[in-house]
Amino acid sequence: MPGLRALWQRVPARLPPRMHPAVLRVVELAAVFALIVAGRMYAVTHWKLTSGDVTEYHTYAQAFWLSHPPLNRLPVEYPPLAVIPFSLTLLPPLSDIQTIFSLWMAAFVTLGYAGFLRFSTRRAGLLYLLYLLLGSDAVLTARFDIVPALATLAALWATERKRFVLAYLLLAAGILLKLYPAFLLPIVMIAHWQALRTTQSLPWKRGVGALSTAFRNNHAIRAVTMGAALCLGIVVLAFASAMALAGTAALSGFTYASNRPLQIESTPATILWLGTLVGIPAHPDFSFVSLNMVGPLDVALKPLSAVALLAGCLVVYWRQARGKLSVGQAMLACLCAVIVTNKIFSPQYVIWVLPMVAAVEGFNLIWVAIGVLTTLDFPIVYGLRAPIWDAPFSWQFMPVIATRNLLLLYATLRAIMRRDNHAQAAPPGPTRDKSHAQSLDYNAKIAPMLTR
Q1: To bridge 125 with a disulfide, which of 36, 85, 116, 378 should be the other Cys (CB 3.0-4.6 Å)?
Q2: Rounded Cα–Cα distance for residues 50 and 36 (Å)
Q3: Is the pTM of this model over 0.85?
Q4: Which of 376, 365, 371 has its CA nearest to residue 400?
Q5: Long-range contact pairs involving 213-220 (C-beta distance under 8 Å, separation at least 24)
Q6: 176-226: per-residue pLDDT in tens?
Q7: 112 contacts 146 by C-beta, under 8 angstroms
């Protein structure tokens, strides 16, 4: 051991001085990767987790690439681009697909940490790891949700640095992976318009007749419209291509989600459960490969859930447009609104929002509690009963979920109603001045391309 220690101490002296930071960075990222892998090993060993999702991903990937003819069988329930992370179960082509997929997802988590080091701060990166391990260790590397989550986080960093073309492209990729980033598109559009607007009065304040003239003459409106068209055009083109290959199966993600009942961990399902305390009947139901809650009230709660989701997002857009929320705060508030009002809330959904919490809010005990309660729900309380449809008969089950959802509702309302006095501030982190200078040059080159 002394010999190894002495050898390690001599390594920096043998390296050029410029390589010292690079070596330390590689060691740091390797340690993060090892931490995520160790977390997965702990989860599998102590919580006896099943591996149905990864098996399903593997089946979808095989059907897509290896069927005859290939490329014509897309995953059910997922957008077309989801087949790319699913295909990682085939690389390399080994029998232990669980370990292969976990290692790939651990690499993506590590990539996210590297992003924090580059575009934010090390403290925020450490909080990113803390939140993910506390709130999603059981599903972090057993689901692919970290991939669209990092796409939306990268879109935030690109928007903060006024790299709007890149932000639109990243959102398009996120939508084609998991659909929910579509709710963030208006936030990027508003930030884009705020960055380009002039001191002239807003066109809708001068009457409807001025809108067409304003569009022709207003550089900001033209650029935002073309940016949104770029994002939506890519999404439409991808779905059209998928339909050409697989027919209407390419739209199964929409039909599958619309037909699902209230998932038992969602806020509307919590309301159903609370109704049983005053005599309104409701009961668990296992369908769509998930545990749900059904009862007389779900006929009203399902459409009300959609209305609440839309209303929450519209309030976020309005407050951002008025300068009450920064782009990061608006993205965080919007993601919270989408999750807390959705009729489906699987444990992996917290992965969508936790990286954004680390980037925007930093350390917050409310989010620590939300993460801990989510892990307490799954896999701990879920594991108290077997099979899965017996889980609601544990007395801890619904109270844990209800407490988590109440805290999330509070966090959502706080995120929406806060006021930021520096909503238009430059992006955080040590690269602020350099990024701001680069963004001016970038927009000078790219913005005209969006207005031709």
Answers
A1: 116
A2: 18
A3: yes
A4: 376
A5: 219/447, 219/451, 220/192, 220/193, 220/196
A6: 999 999 999 999 999 999 998 754 444 444 554 555 555 555 788 889 999
A7: yes
